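At this stage, I put together one protein's amino acid sequence and its backbone structure tokens, which the following lines show:
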Amino acid sequence: MTAPSDVLRDAFTYHSWATLGLLDAIDQLDRTQLDTSIPGTYGSILETLTHLVDADDRYLQRLVTTEVPPSVDHRLQEVDELRPRVEANDARWSDKLHELEAGSLAARIRGRGDGYPDVDHAEGLLLLQALHHGNDHRTQVCSTLGTLGLEVPDIDVWSFWASRA
């Protein structure tokens, strides 16, 4: 029988797997392609993926401190710089999920004064936001690849599940 914690663990394993799969798909693109952005997306392919990984760092940090990490993204990072960060974050997500299962993960968000209230027990909020944010930006990158007429990687959940069989 599948435990609820297994579902959440699978969701974060998928999150990392899909981002790594997207990095694999863009690894051989030229600079012009990597710098392409289309209306309605965060930015260029590399800007979007750098932002996604930077945001994961911030969500992970917010799980351990009420101090709001700066929302400024790193300089534009290349695929070979992003990949080890995603892999490291995968291990960090796993650690945080272990803490959640053990009942020792206790995140609190202090309100920002701009309509966002204090949130006690913010673990669920931060975990859900990380998953949503990752899917949103991976979809934007895939849309950009499709607009360029390039192959769009098959990084949906069905493919993830099949890859584990």
Remarks:
- The mean pLDDT is 93.
